[in-house]
Amino acid sequence: MDGAAQIAATAFFFANSSTVNQRLKGAKGSYVYNRSYELAKSRLKILKKMGNVFTVTSLFCEAVSIVNSGELMPSNIVDLVMGGLSLSGWGSLVAAGYYILDAAVYSYMGYGFGDMLDKKYGFFLR
Predict the structure, then answer these.
(1) I need a surface site. Which of 38, 53, 56, 95 has the fewest CB within 10 A?
(2) pLDDT, tens digit, 9 for 90 and up, residues 54-74
(3) What pLDDT band is residue 11 in, cutting at 50, 70 and 90?
């Protein structure tokens, strides 16, 4: 579940960056500039839509996981909050940072922040 949320948060973060429009070169009004700008804008829209689709899918999978297990764990709450944050502008930066750091901790220690919270606090609802 964390992997899907990480992909969604990262994709949404890159889709929200406005540097694509600022880095375009060429004389304003020229065909090359206008065409490049329009292509960049359309690609940015596609990335934003993909990021939203991945995030909503991740949130849905997390909800299904909670319903199937019958338990609400702290890791579920963190995943839902970070998924919701990734739908906003600045929240996507926070969520992407969290998921990247969580993946780094997981690859180094063998368990992530959600596992640490689950061990310490157990479950909230059964």
Answers:
(1) 38
(2) 889 989 999 999 999 888 888
(3) low
- In what helix (H) or strand (E) does residue 59 lie, and over which residues does it extend? helix 31-69
Measured between alpha carbons, how far is residue 40 from residues 12, 32, 35, 92 in Å? 16, 12, 9, 20
Do the Cβ atoms of 101 and 5 come closer than 8 Å? no
Residue 109: HSE in the Cβ half-sphere, 13 Å Cα cutoff: 12
Spatial distance between the Cα atoms of 113 and 126, rounded to a whole number of angstroms: 21
CA distance 113 to 7: 17
Residue 55 to residues 32, 77, 98, Cα–Cα distance (Å): 34, 15, 15
Contact 81/94 with Cβ under 8 angstroms?
no
For residue 83, pLDDT beyond 80: yes
Residue with tokens 């990335």: 47
